[in-house]
User: What shape does this take?
Amino acid sequence: MAENLLRKGSTFLETQRQMFMTEDVVYRRGLQSVTLKATLGKSEFEVADESGFTVKAFVHDFLITAADLILGGSAVVPKIGDQVSVTRGGESVVFEVLTLPNGECWRYSDSFGKTLRIHTRQVS
Assistant: This one.
């Protein structure tokens, strides 16, 4: 059987992202938390304001390996209100998972479901 080169390439890129483009973050849902490696990114989108003008906005994204998001012993997907904490300059900065105008709070960042892109906003 022929090897799926796209899957092999995606696995290689995910490994490289984890090794060279991540920092430790704490993902929290209520009293449950897990420390994992994440890459900080952003997503841009357009929304109409009260006057009908189109405004460009962005949210902070965290890219994580889907298999690493384990809470209470089970693999989970992000939920609105979950929090991600990262340490910057010795202080904890907290981001909260939010929904974009299209209704999603996360999406797969690759074709094989290995990487989650979680949409957040800074809350502290």
